[in-house]
Amino acid sequence: MKSLIRKSLVVLGCASVGAFASCTDLDEEVYSDYTEQNFPSTPEQYAALTGPVYVAAQKFFDNNFYDLQETATDEVVVPTRGGDWFDGGKWRAMHLHTWTPSHELMRNSWDWGFNAIGTANRILTQLETAPESDNKRQTIAEVKTMRAWYYYNMMDAFGNIPVVTTFDDNAAAPMQMPRAEVAAFIAAELEENLQYLTEEVSPTTYGRPTKWMAHTLLAKLYLNSEVYTGKATAPDGELYWDKVVKHADAVINSDKYALESNYFDMFKPTNGPQNREPIFSIPFDAVKAKGNLLYNKVLHYAHRDTYGLTTNPWNGWTTTPSFFNLFADQDIRKQQWLYGQQLNASGDNLVYNGVNVVLDPYYFPAFDVGGEDDLGRLAGARNIKYLPDPNAVNFNANNDVVIFRYADVLLMKAEAILRGSSLGSRADALALVNQVRDRAFNDNPEFRYTDANLTLQNIYNERGREFALEMTRRTDMIRFGRFEDEILFKPANPGETYKRLFPIPATAIASNPNLVQNPGY
Fold first, then answer.
1. CA distances (Å), 131 to each of 10, 126, 135, 193, in order?
2. Which strand (E) or helix (H) includes residue 126?
3. Torsion over CA: 137, 138, 139, 143 (sign)
């Protein structure tokens, strides 16, 4: 099934070059000067036109947004390993929450998000002159939904941000909009465009926003709206928790999605539109849609011989002991962690520089774990939820990255009910959480939650286990009031709640004097 999207990836990649310059691999007509005679009219032609909006999404690895979301949490720590991974101290600063406006991850993430928003605005400007049609209306809705997703990421990370909906190189430098107003703008954009988005879930719509993707993003937005607005009630008087349930129910009642029977199938290098759980994914291809470098960050150098890789991984990212301890031995999700004696492809002990590769989830004597004898390079369990790809090319893997999936919809609804939604009962919430729990424990009833232990704390822990390395943990930690907790080498910092927002990058303020720095920085 993965091959079904290969051609579309070429279309998207080529459409991102210049002003849609020609691409020799395609037969499709390319549009550079738009008139009524040559403006796109078919779904395929519209896909080529809007390709840059989706290509931009693939850049969240290259431009550090993934790193920004993960390395400030308890689920990822990037220790210095005898000189390796020091990188000017940027990973230490992320772990210790000592980042500044000049930090590289702040700058690159901001640039990623707002460049993508600018791309979306440019495409929308081009679409304005297109003849009216169902294809046009759907395409505009898709681009606006993608723009809303980019704005959501920027608002969640940076708070008060500029909102620009036009493409004009000569426009004045924009002012920031208060975070609550940005959240309201995102909600309105999504709600207004729901009617034009497709309900189809197929290889044709894979990697593009459907109606169900918009419902899921709205549920996530409303789940966190008390953080974003400081209020539990929306301007229309409805509880945000009720809005979460309504949008979650839209996805659940669509009958388009289901939990994968095998948890790991949706993360394999061969994942794609055949998987029933993902609601929105970013397609990657080792040749045509590069950028998924995740397995390189986590694996030990010697794991090349375990997974038949053509390059040496980088031996960096691991997890904290406390996060690793969330996983019971009976939980199949614990299989996403590599720890203990590692083996090569033949089943023999893996050895590197004469040292047995025995990964220790608990060996963290200091942030710089050492490495002169290679023992420091064995510190920490490694995550292989996204299974390492033997067909990777120059470090680029074929695994598509899952952004939203059905398990999140179930757990968001359950949490909203526990937090006070009137649109469900504790029994409903219990059943939802146990759907996820049953898969994790092979339907063993001994591990199901009961009414007595269904608490918000357990929902928080369950989300950690279910969505490790899926860019949900930072937002979850903030919503549950846990972002200031002690994390391995970072002491508890209860007086620094301002760090729930990252600083506006110094480079952004230098280029736009209308920007005001977030408090505390």
1. 26, 11, 10, 19
2. helix 104-127
3. positive
Cβ–Cβ < 8 Å for 398, 289: no
At 305, phi and psi to the nearest 5?
-80, -15
| Residues 359 and 338: beta-carbon distance below 8 Å | yes
Angstrom distance (rounded) from CA 518 to CA 521 = 6
HEC profile for 457-478? HHHHHHHHHHCCCCCCHHHHHH
Give yes or no for a contact between 440 and 336, defined as CB atoms under 8 angstroms apart: no
Tokens linked to 339: 């720890």
Rounded Cα–Cα distance for residues 289 and 497 (Å): 38
Residue pLDDT tens, the chain, 521 long: 454 444 344 333 333 322 222 222 223 333 344 555 567 777 788 888 899 999 999 999 989 999 999 999 999 999 999 889 999 999 999 999 999 999 999 999 999 999 999 999 999 999 988 889 999 999 999 999 999 999 999 999 999 999 999 987 777 789 999 999 999 999 999 999 999 999 999 999 999 999 999 999 999 999 999 999 999 999 999 999 999 999 999 999 999 999 999 999 999 999 999 999 999 999 999 999 999 999 999 999 999 999 999 999 999 999 999 999 999 999 999 999 999 999 999 999 999 999 999 999 999 999 999 987 788 999 999 999 999 999 999 999 999 999 999 999 999 999 999 999 999 999 999 999 999 999 999 999 999 999 999 999 999 999 999 999 999 999 999 999 999 999 999 999 999 999 999 999 999 999 999 999 999 99
Encoded amino acid at 52, one letter = P
Cβ atoms < 10 Å from Cβ of 206: 21
Q: For residue 258, which amino acid is it?
A: A
Dist CA 360 CA 376 (whole Å): 10
Q: How many other CB atoms are there within 10 angstroms of residue 57's CB atom?
A: 23
449 near 474, Cβ under 8 Å?
no
CA–CA separation, 173 vs 156, rounded Å?
A: 22
- Does pTM top 0.85 for this prediction? yes
**Distance (Å, whole) CA 506 – CA 103:** 9
* Pick from 361, 399, 437: nearest CA to 264: 399
Answer left, alpha or beta for residue 52, where phi above 0 means left and psi between -120 and 50 means alpha: alpha
Here the tokens at position 275 are: 């998987």
- Cβ contact 222:243 at 8 Å: yes
Beta strand 278-282 pairing with 401-405: antiparallel
269 burial (CB, 10 Å; 0-12 / 13-18 / 19+) is buried
Measured CA to CA, the distance from residue 3 to residue 286 in angstroms comes to: 12
d(CA 460, CA 25): 47
497-501 long-range contacts, CB within 8 A, separation 24+: 499/97, 500/227, 501/157, 501/158, 501/159
